[in-house]
Specification:
By secondary structure, the chain is mainly alpha-helical. The protein has a domain of about 280 residues: Up-down Bundle (Cytochrome C Oxidase, Chain A). Helices cover about 70% and strands about 0% of the residues. The chain is built from 20 helices and two strands. The protein has a two-stranded antiparallel ribbon. About 50% of the residues are buried. Bound molecules: copper (II) ion (CU). Copper (II) ion binds next to helix 9. The site of copper (II) ion has 5 residues, from helix 9.
Length: about 650
């Protein structure tokens, strides 16, 4: 029996009421979804139109669907953390045990970074990048599908841990020796390792895919210095991914070998070195935070220029700042543990480098403000998110520069001051940026605009909720409250924890209003038809109809300027072109289910390694190899659309357009 099930047994099922509740809700939720699909006969439709798609726009929508689902899971964890810390003062024990609390904190951080932020980022890049550079798709559509499904497989593995086995108590970065076998013998840490390995490989493949897309698939005439800033921010992000993610894969690989094969890379004894792990994980970790925020910076550059109706100020310095941040982000990692005791000289170097990285970031903020200066500003929701960003991100940046001083960091290291800081820059920076992007490009992808009024209320709730939730943590950190406390008896702390809890509830209200906004907008969609250019945009994606056609461009555009669509519109105002459009036949990739199959086998490898079901690991590896061989040996992977068909499709899409 051990050969078949390894260390899996009924004893691996959750024992605590709150985790049993979580497990049951996931199982019932899953059963209901499958039952609904079968009842409404949508299984075939879902497989044919979505699961097997190689269309980057649809893959983007699926990334965002998973990210939103995981945002709900991560928010549930955040509510549990806040409830525990609001209650567990003095003799009170709160709602969960210490071990469960550590698992909830670890799951919250892991899910929010790897499956919410990364999901929204890859989702938006898939939706917009090809359209913005004048391409029909990414460079490797099939690889794009594989990347997405590896991301999905990692996400499922993380959530399966809630049903059987439990999650890691080691924090979102799994510091040894706590994550070594001696201190965490259960499957929790293995879930964390192998789920991130699988999703991480997907991320690396996406990075390569988007880099090649930008370098090889730009429309004729779009020289690099004629590319919109969002495309530049993606270019720099892909370079960061390609150089940083292999560090993560290697580090998690070594920790996995310690746990599976009794090696001693990071053990506290027998020659292992836990600090080596911490250096390696942050050599990936700090570039990672810029991988998350740079695309958000790119989104803000597009949003601010469009809603100020002005060319982006300081285009060249914006590009320069992106590259400065890229290089510097690889030489600041030690600021995460000045307390390691590497010595004043080493700390001084990393402290100064960290302060220096604030300069190119500041250049960006000022360029956005100078773009607004003298502009005709419209405060639509995307622009409102930018305004919130300026407040929260600047606050986060300032507290970051403060902690770049080793002497100050010694006081607040691993305290709630630090927790407030990184939520400030990740929620206030990356997440607010993605929300701005979703509001901005939603009409292009779905063909109708979102309800502005509810959208505005949601934005205000997020901003107020954010400040109420995290400003108290700055104070608590200075009062000595350290991170991951499941119980405390500090004087005057409880009130601040309760206020922070109220803040999270206001944020949840903001999130609920966004859901309401979507439902009401779908309801009113016939009334809110977007048209191809709902915001009076500047870049290429606004030149195609809304929703964007499955082939993106019927005829590949020729680019003369970085605000090409704006320039074309101005020219069209002067004289209407009478040129007849020359349609040509095009080829597009056929849908394929091999991406799903490869990810399913990858899931088997991960699940087998976690539960020591070695046969399952072998089946998984053989399955992945056979699927790849079958795919590469299949040469019928594309289908053609004739010029006549293209003309008809294009007319159809254009016919949908309301006359502006
Ligand atoms: Cu850092």
């Amino acid at each position: 029996m051990d050969f078949i099930l390894g260390r899996l047994s009924f004893d691996s099922l959750p024992k605590e009421l709150i985790t049993q509740g979580g497990a049951i809700s996931i199982v019932i939720g899953g059963i209901l979804v499958v039952a609904a699909l079968i009842y409404f006969k949508k299984v075939g439709w879902l497989w044919k139109n979505w699961f097997t798609t190689l269309d980057a726009k649809k893959i983007g929508i699926m990334y965002i669907a998973i990210a939103v689902l995981m945002l709900a899971r991560g928010a549930a964890d955040a509510l549990m953390i806040r409830a525990q810390q609001a209650l567990a003062s003095g003799d009170a024990h709160g709602i969960v045990s210490s071990d469960t609390f550590q698992q909830v904190v670890s799951a919250h951080g892991t899910i929010m970074i790897f499956f919410v932020a990364m999901g929204l980022m890859f989702g938006l890049i898939n939706l917009v990048l090809p359209l913005m550079i004048g391409a029909r798709d990414v460079a490797f559509p099939f690889l794009n599908s594989v990347s997405f499904w590896l991301f999905a497989a990692g996400m499922i593995l993380i959530n399966v841990s809630l049903i059987v086995g439990g999650f890691s108590p080691g924090g979102w970065l799994g510091y040894p020796p706590l994550t070594e076998l001696a201190y965490s013998p259960g499957p929790g840490v293995d879930y964390w390792i192998w789920a991130l390995q699988i999703a991480g490989i997907g991320s690396l493949l996406s990075g390569i895919n988007f880099l090649v897309t930008i370098l090889k698939k730009r429309a004729p005439g779009m020289a690099l210095m004629k590319m919109p800033i969002f495309a530049w921010s993606v270019l720099v992000t892909t370079i960061l991914i390609i150089f940083a993610f292999p560090i993560l894969t290697a580090t998690l690989g070594m920790l996995g070998l310690d746990r599976l094969m009794g090696m001693h890379f990071f053990t506290a004894t027998q020659g292992g070195n836990p600090m080596l792990y911490i250096n390696l994980i942050w050599a990936w970790g700090h570039p990672e935070v810029y991988i998350l925020v740079l695309p958000a910076f790119g989104i803000f550059s597009e949003v601010v220029a469009t809603f100020s109706q002005k060319r982006l100020f300081g285009y060249k310095t914006m590009v320069g700042a992106l590259f400065a941040i890229m290089i510097l982000s690889f030489i600041v990692w030690l600021h995460h543990f000045f307390t390691m005791g590497a010595g004043a000289d080493v700390n001084a170097f990393f402290g100064i480098m960290t302060m220096v990285i604030a300069i190119p970031t500041g250049v960006k903020v000022f360029n956005w403000l100078f773009t607004m200066f003298g502009g005709r500003i419209r405060f639509k929701t995307p622009m409102l998110w930018f305004m919130c960003f300026v407040v929260t991100f600047t606050l986060g940046g300032l507290s970051g520069v403060l902690m770049a001083v080793p002497a100050i960091d010694f006081q607040v290291h691993n305290s709630l001051f630090l927790v407030a800081h990184f939520h400030n820059v990740i929620i206030g920076g990356a997440l607010f940026g993605y929300f701005a992007g979703l509001m901005y490009w939603f009409p292009k992808i779905f063909g109708f605009t979102l309800n502005e009024r509810i959208g505005k209320y949601a934005t205000y709730c997020w901003l107020v909720g954010f400040l109420v939730a995290f400003l108290p943590l700055y104070a608590l950190g200075l009062m000595g409250a350290t991170r991951r406390l499941d119980h405390y008896d500090g004087p005057g702390w409880q009130m601040l924890f309760v206020i922070a809890g109220c803040g999270v509830l206001i944020i949840c209200l903001g999130a609920a209003l966004m859901v309401l906004q979507l439902i009401v907008s779908i309801w009113q969609r016939k009334k809110n038809i977007a048209g191809s250019d709902p915001w009076n945009g500047r870049t290429l994606e606004w030149s195609v109809p809304s929703p964007a056609p499955f082939y993106n461009f019927a005829i590949t555009p020729t680019v003369t300027d970085r605000d090409n669509f704006w320039v074309e519109k101005q020219a069209a105002l002067k004289h209407k072109s009478t040129a007849k459009l020359q349609y040509e036949a095009i080829t597009l990739p056929k849908n394929s289910g091999v991406g799903v199959i490869i990810a399913a086998f990858a899931f088997m490898i991960g699940f087998g390694l976690i539960w020591h079901m070695w046969w399952l690991v072998v089946v998984g590896f053989v399955g992945v190899i056979v699927s790849v061989i079958l795919r590469v040996s299949n040469d019928e992977t594309e289908y053609m659309i004739t010029a006549k068909h293209m003309e008809q499709y294009d007319k159809l899409y254009k016919l949908q357009e309301p006359t502006v």
